[in-house]
């Protein structure tokens, strides 16, 4: 069982519009106490919409949905993100089942794909959206290994059917871009958004107690 983060009982400085434990971990990494609020929206790509436009729109929509429902949390800023794996100009979402996951891994095998993560921050003064782009190269993944990877359970809730920070790391021969962006929350862009809005980071227990 994992231990609670040292800042988990500190006064929150924002709402994170995501249920992703990976995004929570990344926010803790840069010292940002936060609360979690789930944003349920339709994540379908619109007709004529590019993958970059789609992830930016969805990140902002998640933030807006949480902001509208979070009156009890006061005036906390809302941070949201959306990640897509893109290959052949096609967005690969979370696999719906085993067959879809194996097909995604087969398509990514031996090739370079793009990972897009958009982040949106809403405050009382407005909103800002930024986009992280990363290129990820996979080595060849044989069918038997794709099957074994599915059995780990890791593919089920990950865009593109893999996780860079866990077992899926062994597939990656090259990364150009943001490791944290591929995880789902690019810390360079996130810190820039927080700084521009005056939201504190790098907090420690000494800062908040």
Describe it for me?
Helix content is about 35%, strand content about 25%. With about 210 residues, it is of the alpha/beta class. It has one domain: Maf protein (Alpha-Beta Complex). Strands 1, 2, 3, 4, 5, 6 and 7 form a 7-stranded mixed sheet that branches. Strand 1 (about 15), helix 1 (about 20-30) and strand 2 form a beta-alpha-beta unit. Helix 3 crosses helix 4. The protein is globular, with a radius of gyration of 17 Å. The mean pLDDT is about 90.
Please describe the topology of this protein.
Elements: E1 14-16, H1 21-29, E2 34-36, H2 51-69, E3 78-87, E4 90-92, H3 98-108, E5 112-123, E6 126-138, H4 143-151, E7 172-176, H5 179-183, H6 187-197, H7 205-208
Parallel strand pairs: 1-2, 1-3
Antiparallel strand pairs: 3-4, 3-5, 5-6, 6-7
Give me some keywords for this one.
single chain; 209 residues; alpha/beta; Maf protein; seven-stranded mixed sheet; 23% strand
**Sheet with the most strands, sense and barrel status:** 7 strands, mixed
Instruction: Tell me the structural class.
Output: alpha/beta
Which geometry do the CA atoms define?
globular
Radius of gyration (CA) equals 17 Å
How many distinct domains?
A: 1
């Amino acid at each position: 069982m994992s231990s609670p983060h040292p800042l988990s009982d500190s006064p929150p400085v924002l709402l994170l519009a995501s249920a992703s434990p990976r995004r929570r971990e990344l926010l803790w990494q840069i010292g940002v106490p936060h609360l979690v609020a789930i944003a349920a929206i339709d994540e379908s790509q619109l007709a004529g919409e590019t993958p970059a436009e789609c992830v930016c729109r969805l990140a902002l929509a998640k933030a807006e949905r949480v902001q509208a429902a979070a009156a009890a949390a006061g005036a906390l800023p809302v941070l949201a993100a959306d990640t897509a794996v893109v290959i052949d100009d096609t967005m690969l979402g979370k696999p719906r089942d085993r067959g879809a996951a194996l097909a995604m891994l087969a398509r990514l095998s031996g090739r370079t794909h793009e990972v897009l993560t958009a982040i949106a921050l809403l405050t009382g003064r407005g909103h800002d959206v930024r986009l992280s782009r990363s290129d990820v190269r996979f080595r060849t993944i044989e069918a038997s290994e794709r099957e074994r990877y599915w059995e780990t359970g890791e593919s089920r809730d990950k865009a593109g059917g893999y996780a860079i920070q866990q077992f899926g790391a062994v597939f990656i021969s090259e990364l150009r871009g943001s490791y944290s962006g591929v995880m789902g929350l690019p810390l360079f862009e996130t810190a820039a958004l927080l700084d521009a809005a005056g939201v504190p980071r790098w907090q420690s227990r000494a800062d908040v107690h």
